[in-house]
Automatic annotation (TrEMBL):
Lineage, uppermost ranks: Bacteria, Bacillati, Actinomycetota, Actinomycetes, Micrococcales
Gene Ontology MF terms: catalytic activity; molybdenum ion binding; pyridoxal phosphate binding
Domain annotation MOSC: ranges: 129-273
Native species: Phycicoccus elongatus Lp2
One Pfam assignment: MOSC_N
Protein name as it appears in the record: MOSC domain-containing protein
Stored InterPro entries: MoCF_Sase_C, MOCOS_middle, Pyrv_Knase-like_insert_dom_sf
Coiled-coil parts of chain: none
Length: 273
């Protein structure tokens, strides 16, 4: 299959926060550099996401030098926070009840902004202490595969060919950002062809395909209006349901050494490895 390319790239520096579009990104074994490196957790250390706290979508997070973060609320409040030192206080955290690397507790000013945005005083902003500590689902990963605070795997890939087919099937003018992928590809490929791949090369990096992505209610939420509607779950449930779940996008794992960083850019060629 020829003529495929990377159409767009995005990261989510704060898990469930606003999407950050990029023209290029570093790639490590744990995913795109800076993706879901910070997270909000509740009093039990469980991740807080826009599934239940949709105001998270209104927080824009911009990575800063030395792995810091600039948080901007929808009303224009801004806080810059340094990544906590390695010996800073930590909290044990889980991502959908699965253990992840301990969270380094951010400075008080950042906590205040997050709590006021969500209207909750029982949440804590944390930075991932070490993504290499987290292990992935053994059925779909290999020894040493890891990620920070993504739901399950380092990278999510979507195809615009698949989106166009989903729109044709009845989903309407649905943007790809509803699915919060890291990498969007386009070109000469059939709808949903990506689900048959085992490996794919994006630019200079080979990725292993881990599994498809079962979609949740967060795809129903418009990140701009914070309103929910029936799509895309309604159309997915009619045409893309198996194993009792609805499916769209695929999860990827970079085939890189622990100390290796590559670069991925919009326009890079895509080929089946």
């Amino acid at each position: 299959m020829m003529g495929m390319h990377v159409d767009s790239l995005r990261i989510h520096p704060l898990k469930s926060g606003a999407i950050r579009h990029l023209t290029a990104s570093g790639v490590r074994r744990s995913g795109l550099v800076g993706d879901r490196a910070w997270m909000v957790v509740d009093g039990d250390g469980e991740c807080v996401t826009a599934r239940t706290d949709r105001a998270l979508f209104t927080l824009t997070a911009e990575p800063l030098p030395d792995n810091g973060l600039r948080l901007t609320s929808r009303v224009g409040d801004v806080v810059e926070v340094c990544r906590p030192a390695a010996d800073a206080a930590t909290v044990a955290v889980t991502v959908h009840r699965r253990p992840a690397a301990p969270g380094l507790i951010a400075a008080d000013a950042a906590q205040a902004l997050v709590r006021s945005t969500l209207g909750r005083d029982d949440v804590t902003l944390v930075a991932c202490s070490d993504p290499n500590q987290r292990r992935l689902h053994p059925e779909f990963s290999q020894e040493g595969d890891t990620t920070a605070y993504a739901d399950g795997y380092p990278v999510t890939l979507a195809s615009l060919a698949s989106l166009r087919e989903l729109q044709r099937l009845g989903a309407g003018d649905l943007p790809i950002d509803r699915f919060r992928p890291n990498v969007v590809i386009d070109g000469d490929l059939d709808p949903f062809a990506e689900e048959q791949w085992t490996r794919v090369t994006l630019g200079e990096t080979i990725f292993r395909v881990a599994t498809g992505v079962d979609r949740c209610s967060m795809t129903l939420l418009d990140p701009q209006t914070l309103r929910t509607g029936p799509e895309p779950i309604r159309t997915l449930s009619r045409h893309r349901t198996w194993e009792g779940k609805t499916w769209f996008c695929i999860h990827l794992i970079p085939e890189l050494a622990d100390d290796q960083t590559t670069t991925l850019a919009v326009g890079d060629l895509v080929s089946i490895a």
